[in-house]
Design goal:
The protein has 304 residues and is an alpha+beta fold. 32% of the residues lie in helices and 18% in strands.
Length: 304
Amino acid sequence: MNIKAVVSKVENHIYWKKIEWGFYDKMDDESFLKMAYKRKFGKELDLKNPVTFNEKLQWLKLHDRKPEYTTMVDKYEAKAYIAQKIGKEYVVPTLGVWDKFDDIDFTKLPNAFVLKCTHDSGGLVICKDKSKLDREKARKKINKSLHSNYFGGGREWPYKNVNPRIIAEPLLKDDATKAGEQECLTDYKFFCFGGIPKIVYISKDKAENPTTDFFDMDYTHLPIRMRDSNSDVLPEKPIRFDEMKKIAAVLSKGLPHLRVDFYCANGKLYVGELTFYHCSGFAPIQPEEWAIKMGEWIKLPTSK
């Protein structure tokens, strides 16, 4: 690793520690987003005339705030919302919900399960065999997540008032995993604009060698790059692709932009989560023409 990369890594570590310690808590949302955007992209955030996908996501954070958005991002409360819209068969079952880790009765959980926090991204414990679970390690991870201020990291308004809790869900087995492959859930993330799915982002971001591929609604591979490399062998079109498109359209109806995530697991189709701001609007999109095109698809509800 060269000197420049080391300096960048240290600066990034310090930046996130400042967020964790509340260094920026008194900074208003617009000033914070301008600071964070310039730090990430090296240029000013244009909120008066946003053009790109990421610029418009920052605008939406500030100006598109509806109470139901908080319900939609809460990993527990969203289940009832999704069930009401499309049916409970598309919701991952909840095995339990708790305010504190020490309230969990592990004797009532199956041998394999997942623990996650309701208010953040990353507070996840995967248990494949309950007899081998390191509970102290799990406790530390979950408690750290429970006390984290996810809203502070990117000022994603819907998360500001989510009640931090713990939920348990069954461990899902990916239907797309073939014999001999590492077990890893495939995410099918549909980018919807005004209720119309335009792009699906197929990701194995938890795999040893993370991959991402973008397709249009005819399942034509697109030249978009964000973080990880494209797959050496492109993923096959999901059997339930058309069903996913229809559900994504229902769940995103009337919204400037929403990402609807799916899993095909245990022989069923599940909605994983609803996301308003992909990577909090800080993931560079290449080539630039796609950053602009995706921005054009977002029709801002008002002008400021």
